[in-house]
Amino acid sequence: SKSEIGLLGLGTMGAALALNIADNGFDIAVYNRTARVTQDFKATAGDLAPRITATETLEDFVASLKSPRAIILMVPAGEAVDQQIAALRPLLDDNDLIIDAGNANFHDTNRRAEAAGDKPFLGIGVSGGEEGARFGPSIMGGGNKASWDRVAHILTAISAKHDGTPCATWMGEQGAGHFVKAVHNGIEYADMQMIAEVYGILRDGMGLDNAAIAAVFDRWNTGPLASYLIEISARVAEAKDTDTGRPLLDIITDAAGQKGTGRWTAIEAQHLGAPVPAIEAAVAARNLSAARDLRQTGEDIFGGAPQALNGALTVDQLEQALIAGKIICYAQGFTMISGASEQFGWNLPLPEIAKVWRAGCIIRSVMLDDMATALSEDPDKNLMFASTFAGNLKATHGALRAVVAQAALHGLAVPALSSGLAYFDTMRTHRGTANMLQGQRDYFGRHGFERLDREGKGFHGPWAN
Ligand code: NDP
């Protein structure tokens, strides 16, 4: 009998997703460019093998699917996706659905949706890594709603569940799903960076060893900061190298990798005029981390920066600061989503986005549950101003200020936390300083300014030029 869905690309993510689909009771046909991979996949599928049809040509793959067909592509983002769409389309009927489930740039997804015309096409963001793909990812769908509805029963079945609610939602037309996934990744960068900055203060400012740092993270993981990222930070901090027995963190090189999704989010935010400075700081921090030789030169010239805090901060203050920093960083991410929603006419469902991120994805946390509630009550507000989070920030921004100030005084670099604090202070200052910028711009370029005391635009200062 024919399969309900097809999946092309049995790499890390594709293989895990295919097993997840079979595990949820759906018959699935699979195809991979390298046929040996397909055979190995079927051979190692165990109990699930009877639900899996392994195919070795695209023709057999397409022929093994129930009509109207639905095919998931799980290949590297970029050219491979265009190649596979081009190879499949001639074999498909006009109402067969292609679903790109990789990490596509949403502009590409917009373009592919446009090129597909009336032929159904979805771009879905899948978060949670291999483990998520196998046992329940968070799924952010984009494209034609009717196409989503055709496969929603499969995508919700395989998704993560938060108290029984599936973490799989249609976000909007075209590239909306891939856009939301990208912002997720940007937030992930900032969340991780803030944790790393606090780790630096615990290590260099307070002199805690790795085991003590792991214990701090474990304790925080039972409170407001409870999250997958805090949990794994504890596991990383306590881990020992299997070869040498030394603490793993002491031998991991302090130079971060990146695949570019965080950078892309920061750039897109600039295009949208919806800035995400904490995410920008996190992207910059990864870039600067890679410049190890240059940092050695700086240390040789100026002396190493970090100094002991000698009791100037408490571990509790660090927890409070991280709570404040996290709220601010998510507020930026959601503001960016609002901005895109408006500019692209997507009508993105902010509360649903917070809900979809509550389980299955890397940034899952208890705080996202409160964010979902706050955004349900008022999706247009900056999250910092929603009553729950305004209350949290009133209670914690003093600690963030103390942490940033003491870090500055003791040479401990905290770029994301300090950027978050600057954003917070900016966003609670009605009388800002851009009057000076406007004066300067009018002075050198006659750009004109508005006045507080009169209606209208295009006023000028008394410059003689
Ligand atoms: P892998 O490198 O593990 O697998 C890539 C798969 O794509 C292989 O099956 C490969 O086939 C196939 N492939 C590569 N190029 C082509 C091509 N030109 N034509 C046809 N097939 C091709 O990648 P992942 O599974 O890690 O990633 C897949 C997608 O999922 C990417 O977009 C990635 O960004 C995204 N993603 C990955 C996550 C992760 O944690 N790894 C998390 C979330 C999303 P072959 O065996 O023949 O080489």
Low-pLDDT stretches: none
Shape: globular
Oligomer: single chain
List each distinct ligand once: NADPH dihydro-nicotinamide-adenine-dinucleotide phosphate
- Helix share bin: 55-70%
Total DSSP E strands: 10
Separate helix tally: 20
Distance between the termini: 82 Å
User: CATH-wise, what's the superfamily of the largest domain?
Assistant: N-(1-d-carboxylethyl)-l-norvaline Dehydrogenase, domain 2
Would you list the SSEs in sequence order as H and E?
A: EHEHEHEHEHEHEHEEEHHHHHHHHHHHHH
**What class would the helix/strand composition place it in?**
alpha/beta
Could you characterize what this model shows?
The chain is of the alpha/beta class and 465 residues long. It has 2 domains: 170 residues, Rossmann fold (3-Layer(aba) Sandwich); 245 residues, N-(1-d-carboxylethyl)-l-norvaline Dehydrogenase, domain 2. 55% of the residues lie in helices and 9% in strands. It has 20 helices and 10 strands. The strands form 2 sheets. Strands 3-2-1-4-5-6-7-10 form an 8-stranded mixed beta sheet, with helices on both faces. It has a two-stranded antiparallel sheet with strand order 8-9. The N and C termini lie far apart (82 Å). 47% of the residues are buried. Bound molecules: NADPH dihydro-nicotinamide-adenine-dinucleotide phosphate (NDP). NADPH dihydro-nicotinamide-adenine-dinucleotide phosphate binds next to helix 1, helix 4 and helix 6. The site of NADPH dihydro-nicotinamide-adenine-dinucleotide phosphate has 22 residues, from helix 1, helix 4 and helix 6.
